[in-house]
Amino acid sequence: MTFDDPTPLIGLEIHVALATDSKMFCPCETEFVREPNTQVCPVCLGLPGALPVLNRRAVELGVLCALALDAEVYPEMQFERKNYHYPDLPKGYQISQLAAPMAENGIMSFTDDDGGEKEARIRRVHLEEDAGKSIHLPGEGTLLDFNRCGVALAEVVTEPDLHSPADVRCFLEQLRELLRHTGASEVRMEEGELRCDVNVNLVHNGEGTPGRTEISEVKNLSSFRGVERALQYEVERHRQALRRGDPLTHETRHWDEEREVTFSARSKEESHDYRYFPDPDLHPVRIPRAMIDDLQERMGELPRARRRRLSREYDLSSYDADVLVGGGLADFFEEVVAEGSNAKAAANWVMGELSAHLNAEDIGIDELPVQPGQLAQLLDMVDSGEISGKIAKEVWGAVVQQGCDPRAIVEERGLSQISDDAQLESLAREVVEEHEDVVRDYRSGKEKALGFLVGQIMQKTQGKANPQMANEKLREIISREGCE
To answer: Rounded mean pLDDT of 251-264?
Structure first.
């Protein structure tokens, strides 16, 4: 390590909106598109006399998050009041967890941009309620929307194990995929369902003067691009300070997306600044072992493990496995293969024609009007030579529109591939006689000329001729006539 290459130490505090129908402690709905302040009640507004009631589903989804991160889920947790005053926090405190969180000591493996395998330790996963939203209008003041107030959150806190802005982006992208897989959250970034606070400082232990900078926290980053850009700015700011020997303060900063700079907001609070104490309105919560075991079983195979298995079991490239798992197509693919289809052919079709149809229609795989068995039947007809690849695409178009079996469409439209030897010989001879100049080019060593002749047979048969047999028949006729 040189003096110009200090190590960034980056830790994350990630707030994930859980996929509950109602808020953490009240029955208010959690839909995103609503008029301001239309999803509120005395509980989430903190009105006198209103008492919170814990949402059981929020606990289950929080446990799923913790299990997916290989964290230890404790048999008992306690909610506490985190006291601070801010306009979008009507109670003057947030119900959260500190001394007795839901889970601790997890780990998450991820792949960096170069394909390297890395890990980040998970310090804790705890439950809390969200605050409201402040809307700052230049020249008009600040408006408050409390619809989000009380929404159930899981906060994931990492150790400072990440060392570059790019690694943080990769970690967050793969965390989003993991949480979607479990069903704990939809993780819709555009709706604020994943927000991130980043803590960063630099440490230098190499040649020159060793040193480290004070930690800066950049709050409320809501896009992967924003997280990466904010960290790039902060790492360089800390690097320059370390090089010059300038002191940095332990502070909270915000990211200005337009100017692409961070700016100081306030000095960083410590836990004692929030005066945590157990919430007197909420008893400690026991998490039954049976609930944890049931959720672990229902969670199934996690995306990272599935990628590896698909590559190993079906001899797929890591890219193919990434696309199938990341695109939510792996279940359909495996069902097609279970019907007897070649794995590589099935992967190509699922990632190609099937994915293109989903994108064109803007639908999910669960809305596709085609069963895995129907695609397997289509691929089997191509593999057996009953239809060509070109005809298969035509048949696929009819299958997704009509929901019919491929074989029925082929029979109804007379699309079966021409593989009759005598018929193909007649067609090949006809093409050879019509294109004597191209035949001469082929005989002179121009191999591409044969492709043109095969194309002529395909054109005459509207794509129904078996291209391999047509190729062989043309070679045979040309060779035979050349010897006469």
So the answer is: 91
